[in-house]
Amino acid sequence: MRNGTEAASQDGWRRAREARTLMQAHETVSALLPSQDASPAAWREFYRRSAAVYTMIAEVDRGHHHEALYWARREQRKAEELSDRAGAGAGSASAR
């Protein structure tokens, strides 16, 4: 059984995936930011999911296509940096 925080997070990501404009994506994704002391794995998952939202927005909000692609790439790069650090054994969350 999921706890309340996990259920709220899942609902938040569902709303983010339902966004139809870049502004809606920014609003919903920013509400899902992990706490500053969250684990690197939590931040990596946030960036991975955020990248997916912005990739989708690039296709539906064509007026902001290039800006949404920028955000998708940025978030993907941050997720990859955290993965690289975890793979190297550093596990630092300083990429935030």
Report on this model:
The chain is an all-alpha fold and 96 residues long. Helix content is 71%, strand content 0%. The chain has four helices and no strands. It has helices at residues 4-18, 22-30, 40-60, 65-87. Helix 1 packs antiparallel against helix 2 (22-30) and helix 3 (40-60) packs antiparallel against helix 4. The N and C termini lie far apart (31 Å). The mean pLDDT is 90.
Cα(first) to Cα(last) distance is: 31 Å
State Rg: 14 Å
Number of strands: 0
Q: Report the sheet with the most strands, covering strand number, pairing sense and barrel closure.
A: none
Find the structural class using helix and strand composition.
Answer: mainly alpha
Question: How much strand content do the residues show?
Answer: under 5%
Low-confidence region ranges: none
- Separate helix tally: 4
N-to-C order of helices and strands: HHHH
Mean pLDDT: 90
**What is the 3D form?**
flat
- Secondary structure: helix percent: over 70%
Itemize the secondary structure elements and their pairings:
Blueprint: H1 4-18, H2 22-30, H3 40-60, H4 65-87
Helix pairs in contact: 1-2, 3-4
Concise description?
By secondary structure, the protein is mainly α.
Structure keywords:
about 100 residues, mainly alpha, flat
